[in-house]
Design a protein that fits this description.
Radius of gyration: 19 Å
CATH superfamily of the domain at 173-286: ApbE-like domains
CATH architecture of the domain at 173-286: Roll
CATH topology of the domain at 173-286: T-fold
Strand content: 25-35%
Number of helices: 8
Number of strands: 14
Helix content: 25-40%
Largest sheet: 7 strands, antiparallel
Strand order of the largest sheet: 1-5-6-9-12-13-14
């Protein structure tokens, strides 16, 4: 998944090492299965254009992606991975030629490019999928669940900025998680979470400034082939980190128009930052009608 992970766990001292090692092994295994950089589950799918869904983890992420792609009206779309590569992210981003964007757009679009059956997935010729906006959240969900099943009293798993945390009934641990300010490098706000998942996506980590002075990020709108312009950043609180991860990415593309169309109960709270380098506006909904700390 090309990112870093950190884990905090509350447990008896004599079980800590085994718990952390088990969670680390699980995350590494998921990285091998779900990363575009490895020639196993996802990497093999992209190379061969077809894969069995016997792998429970590939099946889970494919199934969730199929649903979330529809729910977000295509703003979340794993087939946009080809567009991200075309733009050169993360290593050497640059503005592609319009005709090259059009060529990759022709092989982008989950509903057109992906065929699912009960036991397999197939890609149209030339298409590729990248679960970068779902796999980190999925791995955080599973690592958290494994820690709690193996005896942790409370745990927090953070993978690439996506967080899943909680505690056992009666332990009453409240986690404080920061939401990064998308422009000044500090914190925009902090969130108190007893149980749940928090994900943030934005244009501030992987971007370049073009000759016209525009900030162009790695979050590509699959409908246009150009970097998202819907929001500067979006933070989502949900029960599932996979859902929070995917929806946060989609909201950077679709902004409040998309947020207002999401099914009730899909997420618990949304914070969207709009504006530009000259100033930002912050809007909140759900549990965060005021401040996340309110």
């Amino acid at each position: 998944m090309g990112t870093m992970a950190s884990i905090i766990v509350y447990c008896p001292p004599d079980t800590a090492e085994a718990l952390l090692e088990g969670a680390e092994r699980l995350v590494h295994d998921l990285d091998r299965r779900l990363s575009v950089y490895d020639d196993h589950g996802l990497g093999r799918l992209n190379r061969l254009g077809r894969a069995s869904l016997d792998d429970e983890h590939l099946r889970a992420v494919v199934t969730a992606s199929d649903s979330l792609q529809r729910i977000t009206g295509g703003a979340f779309d794993p087939t946009a991975g080809g567009l991200v590569r075309l733009w050169g992210f993360p290593a050497s981003p640059a503005l592609p030629a319009r005709e090259d964007i059009d060529s990759v757009l022709a092989i982008t679009g989950w509903e057109r490019m992906v065929s699912l059956s009960s036991d397999s997935i197939a890609l149209a010729p030339g298409a590729m999928v990248d679960f970068g906006a779902a796999a980190k959240g999925y791995a955080a969900d599973l690592a958290y669940a494994a820690l709690m099943e193996r005896g942790a009293s409370a745990a927090l798993v953070e993978i690439g900025g996506e967080v899943r945390c909680g505690s056992r009934p009666g332990f009453a641990k409240v986690w404080t998680v920061g939401i990064r300010h998308p422009r000044d490098g500090g914190l925009l706000d902090t969130v108190r979470v007893e149980q749940g998942a928090l994900a943030t996506s934005g244009d501030y980590e992987c971007f370049f400034i073009d000759s016209a002075g525009r900030r162009l990020s790695h979050i590509i709108d699959p409908s246009s082939g150009y970097p998202a312009q819907g929001a500067v950043s979006a933070s989502v609180l949900a029960g599932s980190c996979l859902v929070a991860d995917a929806v946060a990415t989609a909201l950077v593309i679709g902004g409040w128009e998309l947020a207002d169309s999401l099914p009730e109960g899909l997420v618990r709270a949304i914070l969207i930052v709009e504006g530009d380098d000259d100033g930002i506006r912050v809007g909140r909904s759900g549990e965060w009608q005021e401040s996340p700390n309110g």
